[in-house]
Design a protein that fits this description.
Strand content: under 5%
Radius of gyration: 30 Å
Oligomer: single chain
Structural class: mainly alpha
Order of helices and strands: HHHHHHHHH
Number of helices: 9
Distance between the termini: 76 Å
Length: about 230
């Protein structure tokens, strides 16, 4: 239920210490119309009000056929639906796919080797099971990093934690790791579906990291050769 603010009646005019019923009703009406007493409306109701306020006044258009009202309502409904779909698409593109609090362990259930996860990811990708390919490929990333002692063997590590921790040793691929982790959470815990290109990106990232040399903390890169 929306929050309700209690009106504060304006002080009576000087000398009117005991107003009659009509005077008290007038004070209350003036207070309500002042704008201090209002409902905190949800966003969808404010959007509906904003759209309907911009529709032409039916009285100014003259007599209209009965079906016109349904056409107008349908147009307004389509506009509201389009806004909702746009917001959902924006959340998808920015990676905020899984509902708040809906995350969990990457390596849940029976543990397998990174090679097993990797083979399962490639088989799923070839068979067109994009969602499964994403899950298995990201598990291969986590399991492979654990086998290489780049990650501690800690149960319950989330996709976000894998991305952050591996981002320190694979700095060039930190952004790809973040996107892959978001995609994993979206599929595993958010109920979203992905396409083949998104799945292939995670599978390719696993292959890249498996062949990449990690940059360990404190490691210094050789200086660039200066041409003579």
């Amino acid at each position: 239920m929306p929050a309700l603010r209690t009106p504060h009646l304006a002080a009576p005019a000087q000398g009117a210490v005991d107003p009659d019923r009509d005077e008290a009703r007038r004070w209350l009406q003036e207070e309500l119309e002042s704008g201090d007493y209002r409902l905190e409306e949800p966003w969808w109701l404010r959007l509906w009000r904003w759209v309907t306020d911009r529709l032409p006044d039916p009285a100014a258009l003259g007599p209209l056929p009965p079906w016109t009202t349904w056409v107008v309502l349908a147009a307004v409904g389509v506009a509201v639906l389009a806004v909702a779909l746009f917001v959902t698409r924006d959340r998808w593109r920015t990676g905020r796919l899984a509902p708040a609090g809906r995350t969990g362990a990457v390596l849940d259930g029976r543990r397998r080797s990174a090679a097993d996860y990797r083979r399962a990811a490639r088989a799923a990708l070839q068979a067109g099971r994009a969602d499964e390919a994403v899950l298995e490929a990201y598990r291969a990333i986590a399991a492979g990093a654990t086998e290489r002692t780049l990650l501690e063997d800690r149960p319950g590590r989330t996709a976000h934690e894998v991305a952050v921790e591996l981002g320190h040793v694979f700095a060039r691929h930190a952004e790809q790791l973040r996107r892959a982790g978001d995609t994993f959470d979206a599929v595993r815990y958010g109920g979203h579906r992905v396409d083949t290109d998104q799945a292939r990106a995670v599978v390719d990232l696993d292959a890249t990291l498996d062949a990449a040399r990690p940059e360990l903390p404190g490691e210094r890169r050789p200086p660039l050769a200066v041409p003579s």
